[in-house]
Amino acid sequence: MALPESRICQNDAPVAITILPLDGQVKAFVNGTQIPAVTQSGGQNFFDPSLVNATYFGQAITFTVNDDAVEAQLMVYAQPSVSVTTGNIAYGTDTSDPDATVDFHVTVPNNSTGLTYTFNFGDGTPPLSLTALPSNGIVQHKYNLVAGQEDVFNPTLTVTNGNGCSKTVAVAPVKIKGQMTVVCLNGMRVVIQYRDGIDPGHTCNDASFNLKGNGILIQGATPYNDPKGIIKGNIHLSNTLQSQDAKNYPSGVTTGYSRYNEIAITQTEAQQIALLSPDGFVKFSLECALGYCHTGVAFTQIFLANAPTPIYSGYPNGNFLEINPCTGVTR
Question: DSSP states of 79-121 as a string?
Answer without folding.
Answer: PP--EEEEEEEEE-S-TT---EEEEEEEE--TT--S-EEEEE-
